[in-house]
Amino acid sequence: MQQIAVMTGYSVSTVSRVLAGKSNTSPQARSAILRSAQEFGVLDELISGRLLINGVIIFAPDRAFNSRDDTFYNEVIKGIVEAIAPHDIYIRYCGLEEQQADLKLFLKKASDSNINAMIIIGVDDPTIHKLAATLNKPCILINTTDREMLLDNVSPDHRAIGFSAARHLYQQGHRRLLCLTSLRRDTMVSRLEGVKEAARYFHAPFDEALNLVVTEGFGAVESEAALERWFSQHSQEQWPTAILCAGVFMAKGAQQVLQRRNLTVAQDVSLMVTDFSWTLSEPFSPALTAIQVPCRELGIEAVHLLQNRITRPHTPVFNLMLQGRLLVRDSVIRTTRSIPREHA
Q1: pLDDT digits (tens, 9 = 90+) for 43-78
Q2: Residue extents of the structural domains in the chain
Q3: Per-residue pLDDT tens for 248-277?
C-alpha cells in the first residue's frame, strides 16, 4: 500500500479504503489506485475477496422488479443482492424494454459518476450492448445474447435444458410430444432447438404443425386458449401422450384444457415444464416433473464475473452457461418400455 501511495500520490489510508472496496473515495482516486494495484499484481490476490466498486446498476425489464410479474428475473436479482451484500457498495435499478430500449435513459443512468459497474438482465437490444461496451465500466449480461461478443454473459444452457426435458419424456416411452412455448426471445428458440435435437436423437417425429403450440407470453389464460384451439383442430389419434410446457403457468393452462376433455394429468397425458424456478401459490397437483433453472445462482455468478472483469480487465470475453436440474415427480409416467438410442 505504501508503494501504491507513492506511485499515485494518494495517502496510504485512501489506498487502503479502495483496496477494501469502500465507497468513500473519489472516482479519480479509485481509478488511479486500482490501475497501480493492477501493475503491482495486487488484484490477482483479491479476485475472490472484494468487490472493488462504489455502486452498481441493474438494468432489466420492468416486470423483473416485481416478484408477482416475473419470479424468474426477481430471483436473479435476489441472487445479485445476496452476492453483493458483504461488500460496502450500493445498488440502483432501472427498467428497460427487451427490444428498442430507451437509449437516453440508459446513458443517463449508466453514466452516473457514482456507478462503476453494470448488470443487464434479459435486455436483447444490441444497441444497448454496444453502448455498454463503450462506457469504460465493467458490464455483465444475464440471460441474453450478445451477438457482437463484447460483454461477459451468464445464462442458463437453454438448448441443454430443452434437450434434457424432451429426453426424459422419450425415455419414458412417449412418442407424441406437444411443445407449448413462447418464442419471443432467442433464449426460448434455443430451448426449442434442444427439444428438436432430442427428437432427432431418439428418431422421433417432430412436425411443428403437429408438435408445437406457440404463444406470445407465458400466462395461463393465453396458454389455455392456444392449447384449446390446437385440441379442437386435431383428431384424437393425434393428441399427445405428453405436453412439454415452457413454464409453470403454461402448465396450469394446459391442465385446464385437459380437465375439460376428461383427461387426467399423468394417467392420460403426462405434463412437464422446462422452467421450474418457483412454486405456485396453489400447489400443482400432481407435483410437476420439471427442469429446475438455477435462477438465483445466475445473479451470484454474474457478480463473480463482474469481480473477474474488474480485477482482470484484459481477459477474453466469455459466456458462462449454467445447467438445469431434472426434478422427477408425479406428472410424468412411463407409457411403454423405453428404447435405448443405440437400439432404436
Answers
A1: 555 545 566 778 899 999 999 998 777 888 989 999
A2: 2-45, 55-150+295-322, 158-288+329-343
A3: 889 999 999 999 999 999 999 999 999 876
For residue 114 the three cell numbers come to: 457514482
Distance CA 263, CA 271 (A): 12
pLDDT tens digit string along 149-162? 899 999 999 999 99
* Amino acid at the residue 188: M
Cα–Cα separations (whole angstroms), residue 103 to 108, 212, 250: 9, 36, 33
**Positive or negative, the Cα torsion across 98, 276, 226, 242?**
positive
Q: Which of 129, 88, 85, 87 is nearest to 110 (CA)?
A: 129
**pTM (2 decimals)?**
0.80
pLDDT at 157: 96
Whole-Å CA distances, 115 to 77, 134, 256, 333: 17, 15, 47, 52
CATH number of 158-288+329-343: 3.40.50.2300
We find that the CATH architecture of domain 55-150+295-322 is 3-Layer(aba) Sandwich (3.40)
